[in-house]
Hints:
about 425 residues; alpha+beta; 6-stranded mixed beta sheet; 5-stranded mixed beta sheet; 15 helices; 11 strands; about 55% helix; elongated; Macrolide_Exporter_MacB; ABC3 transporter permease C-terminal domain-containing protein
Amino acid sequence: MRLRGLLHLARQDLAADRRGALLNGGAVAVGAAALVFFLALGAGVTQAARRVFPSDARLVEVVPPAVSLSGVLGGGRLDDATLARLRALPGVADAWPKLALRVPLAATRAPEGLAVNWPPSLVIQIPALGVPRGLVAQDLPPGAPFDDPGPGGAIPVVLSRRLIEVYNRTIAPAWNVRRLPAGPALVGLQLPVRVGFSMVPQKTEDRVYDGRLLLAGLSDRVPLYAAALPLEAVRRLHREYGKPDQGYTAVTLLAAAPQDVPGVARAVRRMGLAVDEGERASAERVGAAVALATGGLAFLALVLCALAALAIAQSLFASVRARAKDLAVLLAVGARPGDVRALLVAEAGLVGFAGGVLGALAARLLALAADAALARALPDFPFRPDTLFAFAPWMSLAGVAVATLAAALGALAPAAAAARIEPARALS
């Protein structure tokens, strides 16, 4: 029997039993909808978590150990010699030192050219971290400066992208001031600062002068709590204020590949240094929890599809008994047992395919309803996602494929029973 004729007969049989086809299709649609819905939910939550913890899979943050064993292991202090050893470790592609600024910086006015209602007497202390250009080069606009301008010049600074989100969602509403525009629109702004001034009593330096910070770019490699300045600018300020050299605050290692990270971390610890997991550990824990929950929910959806397959099998067994004479006529006029099996499987496959398509559409509608409900229920907070779902084309295809396959598998046993019908006995 040709495929076209087989599908024509299958559609006619389904039309003759619309109620059973609708019930079976509905059961399959529920399983397909659950599968697509939960897969999209897991992907969406994972994307939202990455916005909160945008860790780079190739970066390793090296910090001095809490207890120094430098005399035994040769580590403990992050200086140029240690930096060279870290850069030479197997699997390390590059190494960037970081140096915390120990000279206080404070902002007492709004950025130049940005209309912000700066509250009177407001002082913002700015934690700063000196980094080499290589660490943030990928996030700097072409030609953007990131070098020490020398005394009197505007010091380039790179901020965390997340800082804009935190300001717009928390500080701006609290101060009743307008929100900042998108990150790229802020590049080039200059912020007047007081170098050497601290809002903490007795922490202000003997020498205080006016300076400027120039926003050179935004990066996920910069900590949320600090501004990144050129490393040489931090060193110059330390020399100006007589700050002794205490070594680097941290060193960021770039592994050649993500799979090299565990080996690099072990080598760092063998040197007597520590690895700051920080946001990486948080991101990994969140990712593992999301993956586990998504896997469990997807398994539940597959169980629903399996139950739908059992329902289809039971329905087709009843259909085979009711249609025994019709199937016997087919066999009597020349149809082969394989044709009868194929007919039953085609009927179930059509039901599964239609149910899968409806389930994928239902998952989209349910996601829209869930997003609308959450938008009304949740307050505005930093990193609140616009949607909890991330639909990919393969998810809908997987839902349709699983539904079709489950229905076809459920039809195998009834189809085999139909192929064993004896025309003479059924028609007598």
